[in-house]
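agent> call fold_tool(seq_1)
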Amino acid sequence: RVVVARSEDLFGIGDAPQRRQTGRMLTAGIESLFGVTDSTRAWRKLFKPDDVVGIKINCIAGPSLSTHPVVVAAIVSELRKVPIPPENIIIWDRKNKELQRAGYDINVKGPGVRCYGTDVTGYEEKAFARGSFGGRLSKILTRRITALINVPVLKDHGGAGVTISMKN
């Protein structure tokens, strides 16, 4: 299923989506997808309070074309209502440097929501192969999280066209 959520006042002054409207759109989308009137009920169908949830974003293109921190903050807010402890939420991508460049604050071990790159944990030593895919997976995915939310960006690929979440 595909759900479309719109807001004519999503963007205020500047390029950043507004927090309140972003949260409202996320709530409306989740409620529509699950056919409920309380988004927390929908999130609780997906996650348990003892899950360690990884939010995989994409920051390779820098601040203008990366997964926006306002969108991720809205997701984190909803996960906290499940309730998932902030220390059990990991925002991650390839490298700390890319995360920082896109506007994320690195937090590997401090209190609160975690945010760090695979360059902190490394990749699995042995390549994973399934069908036509073959590659080394992040240890964040294989060893640290029990659930995954993929928040990709539109990006092109010479062989596949638009990859969206297929490569995220």
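agent> call fold_tool(seq_2)
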Amino acid sequence: SASSYFNKFKAALKLAYKEGLLAFDLNSKIEPIKEAETRKNYLTIEELNSLVKTECQNPLLKAAALFSALTGLRFSDIQKLTWSEVESDSNGGYLIRYRQQKTNGEETLPISDQAFDLMGKRGKGEDKVFKDLQYSAYHNKHLYQWIGVAGITKDITFHCFRHTYAVLQLSQGTDIYTVSKMLG
């Protein structure tokens, strides 16, 4: 957001002053940008089920979006996910051990059979799970068309599938601490 970028700029000014690169502390003279209240869109379980039943011109994008709604993973983490990061657990289920693109944190995430099925046929260790998944205006067009054909009128981006995961977890009684850990 503009606020977080501006705060980084202010921190750089403060450091420059401390290091003697600036004659006076410009940071102390600049007012920070106030964070705007934003509305986070998400899908209801009914809307998500509608998307499952609706055809998408880009089946890979559909699978990745639904995978995000079932796992809470960001687009960047889905895009770089390899089969070596997907494991069976001791209970016959599945989990993903991966390093988050954004935070570089090491994460372990149990996933449902439904999420696992969206991954398709298992490939070799370093093969990407969602091979050829791309982010562009062209691919976003397919996302918006798919959502529109499903009858959903909300402004939904790929990141909203991550919000959907969080809201659905909370609505099913998962405590907020656990949800925050699952989101990394």
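agent> summarizing second result for user.
The chain has eight helices and three strands. The longest strand covers residues 94-99.
agent> awaiting next instruction.
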